[in-house]
Amino acid sequence: MKKTPSPTDEETQLFRDAIKGTRKIKQDTIRAELRPVKQKREMRESRESLGVDHYFSDEYQPHLEDDGPTRYVRDDVSKFELKKLKRGSYPPEIYLDLHGMNQHQAKQELAALLTLCQKENIHVASVMHGIGKHILKQRIPSWLAQHPNVRAFHQAPREWGGDSAILVLLDIEE
Questions:
Q1: By 3-state DSSP, what share of the chain in percent is helix, strand and coil, each rounded to 5?
Q2: pLDDT of residue 10
């Protein structure tokens, strides 16, 4: 490991001349407390206490078509199911209203809804995200596309929320 040579007397004098007239800075910075990041075990326990068995990633970006209404159909599901959702052939059996929630709260509520649907054998759900700043409207489809029980979803028909809601068709094991 190389050591840097000590400055010569001439270099030291040049430096002192360059900083002449300055004063030492007073350290008055307040340092924030560093809180430890939640461990995976703690996060899993908090999900289990809520009765949620699926975690949604924020990094995952499914390939959803940009043109037209929000829609998705799993590869092993018929495209006709998507048409039925669009037409309103499947009335929602349960509603989830996410108005006024932040992303973290909405994610937990959505996971709890999907878990409840599985327990209660509910096949169609309506998730109302509202319009607002389009944050939840953009995030909810990517979360839904990650869940293994979601067969398809489509922007809800006008009578069940229109642009501010999504109808979700679920694959429930009986």
A1: 40, 15, 50
A2: 93
